[in-house]
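Below is how a single chain appears once it has passed through the pipeline. First comes the sequence as given, then the structure the pipeline wrote out for it. We keep one example in the README because the format questions we get most often are answered faster by looking than by reading.
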Amino acid sequence: MKRISTLTLLSVFFVTASFAQLRIGILGGVHQSEITETNNLPNWSSIKDNYSPRTSGHFGFIADLPFGKKGTVCFQPAVIFSGKGRKYAETWIQPYMIHSN
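Resulting structure:
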């Protein structure tokens, strides 16, 4: 992982030195993800209502690297973290216990 990070930083540095028009930005936002599925598993209809959408976010960095001096064609690498998936919650009902003395 360190090797990939080092190579990325070095390539951004060399591109920055060769082109004066390098632009770097920060991006982020909030989103809600949900998985919709249908299947034929036994008891699926009884547990599918336990799933709910998950509110998460995404954030990262984006760069704009032009290929020429005019900057009409650019390469836009980005590193983005995005939360995905769904939540599962099951309610457990405790049976009522009657204690006799």
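The chain has a mean pLDDT of 77.

See the next section for the split statistics.
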